[in-house]
Specification:
By secondary structure, this protein is an all-alpha fold. The chain contains 13 helices and no strands.
Length: about 290
């Protein structure tokens, strides 16, 4: 039964990511976001540095200093290398993020992912000593199939059929999101025994990882409240589906899967607290002015 669930995840999860990223591509207007990049080049450069360099470095420091179990370290390294969380795209905008800034970041990260994800996985694997288990070409292929190509196709479809894209995108995005949630259940079943065996320290390390990512984006984000919240959430939210896909394709279940469900649960809790705080702080600032 577990083998069947494992194969369903290996097939269904990448397809759901493709559907989600394609749906996000249908929403993107490249001209608008290129204009944002031209108007704010230093902000975009700093933002990409935060998400693609500082977050992986923070993950490396956390793993080396706090010394979690090897499986937790591998999982956190994969998460640190997996930006562009498509399910957070709309959520961040609804929770007070800047849509234009978010769109420019999402598009830039999606296009760079085919290079940055395998590169970061490879470098972290060398630093942490599990490089023999990582197939960089396989990771690049996975990213190309699940992130790069779908977002390009979505943008092309929107360019030629903008009205159809507006109608298809929300429906496809919701269906893909439901599929991911459904697939999360067998992952939970498969890892339930491992979750019970995880010690409290592992949960602490995962929580520190999430808080550190949010803090990096928050501290180094733009001065305006919307921009600061946006970068904090983009740096904090890792691509759960991509990370699981990389994990199951490159590692054994015992090595790769245990960290992902605890990460997802803790991220929802911690990010909700952060967004609540940001909403209150923004409201007080508006009232004070």
């Amino acid at each position: 039964m577990k083998e069947l669930l494992f194969h369903i995840i290996k097939i269904g999860l990448p397809l759901s990511i493709v559907g989600t990223v394609f749906a996000q591509g249908l929403m993107l207007a490249p001209g608008q976001y290129r204009a944002f990049c031209r108007e704010h080049p230093l902000l975009m450069l700093r933002s990409l540095l935060v998400v693609l360099v500082l977050v992986p470095l923070a993950a490396l420091a956390i793993i080396l200093l706090l010394k979690p179990l090897p499986a937790i370290g591998i999982g956190l390294a994969i998460l640190a290398a997996s930006p562009v969380a498509p399910f957070q795209f709309i959520n961040i905008a609804k929770q007070g993020g800047s849509l234009s800034y978010l769109g420019a970041l999402f598009l830039s990260l999606a296009l760079l992912a085919i290079i940055t994800v395998p590169a970061v996985v490879y470098l972290l694997s060398r630093a942490l000593g599990f490089q023999a288990e990582v197939d960089a070409l396989q990771v690049a292929k996975t990213v190309a199939q699940t992130i790069f190509i779908p977002v390009i196709l979505g943008i092309v479809v929107r360019y030629f059929f903008p009205r159809a894209a507006d109608k298809i995108s929300p429906v496809l995005g919701k269906v893909a999101q439901i599929v991911v949630y459904v697939l999360a259940l067998p992952i939970l079943v498969m890892t339930s025994g491992l979750l019970l065996k995880m010690n409290l320290w592992s949960y602490v390390v995962i929580a520190v990882f999430i808080i550190a990512n949010l803090a990096i984006g928050h501290v180094l984000g733009p001065r305006d409240a919307q921009g600061r919240t946006t970068l904090a959430m983009v740096s904090g939210a890792r691509n759960f589906g991509l990370a699981v896909t990389i994990g199951v394709l490159n590692f054994s279940r015992e090595q790769a899967l245990p960290v992902f469900i605890p990460y997802m649960i803790l991220f929802v809790i911690i990010s909700t607290i952060y967004l609540k705080w940001r909403k209150n702080a923004t409201t007080h600032a508006v009232v004070a002015n």
